[in-house]
Amino acid sequence: MAVGKGRGADVGDLVARARDGQARAVARLISLVEDASPRLREVAAALAPHVGHAQIIGLTGSPGVGKSTSTSALVRAYRARGKRVAVLAVDPSSPFSGGALLGDRVRMQDHATDAGVFIRSMSSRGHLGGLSWATPQALRVLDGAGFDVILVETVGVGQAEVKVASAADTTLVLLAPGMGDGIQAAKAGILEIADIFVVNKADRDGADTTVRDLRNMLGLGGRHSDAGAWRPSIVKTVAAKEQGVDELIEEIDKHRAWMESKGVLQTRRKDRALDEIEAIAVASLRERMGDVHGVASLSQLASDVVSGDTDPYVAADTIVKEMGH
Amino acid sequence: MAVGKGRGADVGDLVARARDGQARAVARLISLVEDASPRLREVAAALAPHVGHAQIIGLTGSPGVGKSTSTSALVRAYRARGKRVAVLAVDPSSPFSGGALLGDRVRMQDHATDAGVFIRSMSSRGHLGGLSWATPQALRVLDGAGFDVILVETVGVGQAEVKVASAADTTLVLLAPGMGDGIQAAKAGILEIADIFVVNKADRDGADTTVRDLRNMLGLGGRHSDAGAWRPSIVKTVAAKEQGVDELIEEIDKHRAWMESKGVLQTRRKDRALDEIEAIAVASLRERMGDVHGVASLSQLASDVVSGDTDPYVAADTIVKEMGH
């Protein structure tokens, strides 16, 4: 159905035009991901020979730390280095994504006339597989389309969004001065996902305190240094004035060089592929679940669980067993 | 393994003691959920005859709107009405859950000496199924343990967290004056999940503007009213001074009465059971995936996807097909 959407453009042609730098072709491919189109199967096949080139940088942080301004500054800096840059703003359409969203999206239009820049918000609202299903496939489109650098900015700040940002080659966690309480509350999570901490708005009071707090939290004081592991670095920026951006890119490159020397880049990409395969397999299994049982029988199982006649484990067993046949 | 954890207490005994009002037994059952214990199967069976009594109220909103203060005020009000109350604070251990978290958890200890109140933060960090797997099972524990009212407060503000809050019988969305930009940015999501909007901190400037903005957004101005549907109500509170809490409970009761009269309560509970069954079935399928293929063969598929020798759809097909045998 919805044949009109492609308007005669077959998938191979769309991919060729995307690789040729046509933003509308790229956008249409990403729409196919958002719509969970059946044609994604063909898209994946057409992209396969072309993937693995892009450097994927994840970017996350609380509302108000300057994520979009930083993304914009990074775009400009990478453009100055001659790179083709894509921005994927993953927006789960959460009701609580914070106030700055719309304005910043507009600000990104600084780059609107630059053919070497592609910017796209993506929502996976309503799709069963959610962000973990849609994001890797969108990244695959951008990678296959030949972008050198892909910035993935997550708008929401929950479990799914953090997972998205942490699945990049290099993950930047943004902070701003005066948000020390949040750091305290959350240290466990931050320690794990950040490859590089960016203390943005570093011209404000308290920037050095934030850096010091971070250092203490990370145990960078010199007490212990695990020789094999990457020690997250800390970079101060004022993205709105484009200060510190070159240093940030230097750190990103340093992290990339470290990953390559240790084989970590390949491991991360394999992990991402595993997640992607699993998400597609699970979505396909979910579909089969519905097929095998029909809506009526699933609904009866749910009623039995509500009434207490059975429990959800027994109900799940019933479904899984039948799938084995 | 970890037999010592149960210290000889079998699951039937734990459930009996939980129903008897022993907080430690309830806490231990919830820990089994967090740990994704194999004993959950027995727990679910032992709980089944006892579920379906509790009223489940979801509570969500941006950092700073006063979620924990509101939860605490609701606990006090329900206790004054003689109800046993449980609070489940669903905390995905997101790095960015906002600064107020720890302090507010402490404040909740107002209720620490009241045997009719059970308060628990739950993290599902690291578990494959995430919040959608763990939360319904924790609610089932609290429901089966005989609590009259269960407040589910989500700490994070992303896709998974909003889904959790919206799976309650009645979902409260909290706002505070002066956050109008956020409303604008997010109206679509808010319209969908809120049964009742709570404008907290209503003694601050701008409270009436927030209410008016909400009304306009909701089309409550009188232009169209869908006769069959629930029209989200708006309640002003100052939770820190316990103002407006009785009115809020009145609205919650009104919503419950409406749901019962329309059969919506039963539908919501069935939907929740369906989600729960599906999450358990998918987790079980994921396990089987690993069993069927072994780590080596999955890893090879991922490598082939990274190198472009195959694409993730073909890789997922391989897995799903083998599961059919």
From TrEMBL, chains A, B:
The answer to whether the entry has keyword Transferase is yes
Q: Which GO terms describe its molecular function?
A: GTP binding; GTPase activity; kinase activity
Keywords, comma-separated and alphabetical: Chaperone, GTP-binding, Hydrolase, Kinase, Nucleotide-binding, Transferase
Q: Does the keyword Transferase apply?
A: yes
Q: Which SUPFAM superfamilies match?
A: P-loop containing nucleoside triphosphate hydrolases (SSF52540)
Can you tell me which residues the record assigns to a coiled coil?
none
Q: Which family is this protein grouped under?
A: Belongs to the SIMIBI class G3E GTPase family. ArgK/MeaB subfamily.
Instruction: List the protein's name.
Output: LAO/AO transport system kinase
Q: Which organism is it from?
A: Antricoccus suffuscus
User: Lineage, please?
Assistant: Bacteria, Bacillati, Actinomycetota, Actinomycetes, Geodermatophilales
